[in-house]
Design brief:
The protein has one domain. It is built from seven helices and no strands.
Length: about 160
């Protein structure tokens, strides 16, 4: 069934959907980077290599997140149910917003729901947290691929 899901990715609908997902994710990841530290400030503080690495990671994470959502959509089309692995893309974005965002904003949000903690400055403009987000996306891709591969279609047999 995984081959059928991959075949669906080549159709016009999924290509357009994937491009739209990619653009949304690249916007989100770039915006989150900007909220953490602007690229010019990042160059001054850490050097050009970190900016290039962040931009490359943004493209990789956006592509993988878009592919994860496309696989989830194809799973719904093939099996009639959504996979649990598709939520990892959401967790990755949510995790990124919480860790790359303005520290005072994150503390205020958590304090408003009763969670208090101390936050230290993020090393390398949040790069370790971005790598953890990438791991979450990869786990989601592996999970949903296994769900599609080992999934069972709900077929109702009529009593003859």
């Amino acid at each position: 069934m995984l081959q059928a899901a991959f075949a669906l990715q080549k159709t016009k609908k999924y290509i357009i959907q994937g491009i739209l997902f990619f653009l949304v994710f690249i916007l989100i990841y770039t915006l989150v980077d900007g909220l953490n530290m602007s690229y010019p400030n990042m160059i001054i503080e850490y050097g050009l290599y970190l900016v290039i690495l962040n931009i490359i990671l943004n493209f990789v994470m956006s592509f993988l997140s878009a592919f994860l959502l496309n696989l989830s959509t194809s799973m719904v089309e093939l099996k009639g149910t959504e996979g649990k692995g598709s939520t990892f893309g959401f967790f990755s974005v949510f995790f990124g917003i919480l860790t790359y965002g303005c520290t005072s904003c994150v503390i205020a949000v958590f304090a408003s729901v009763g969670i208090a903690f101390s936050v230290i400055a993020l090393p390398l403009a949040g790069l370790p947290y971005k790598l953890l987000s990438l791991v979450l996306i990869i786990v989601g891709l592996i999970w949903i691929s296994k769900e599609i591969q080992n999934g069972k279609c709900k077929v109702k047999l009529s009593k003859s």
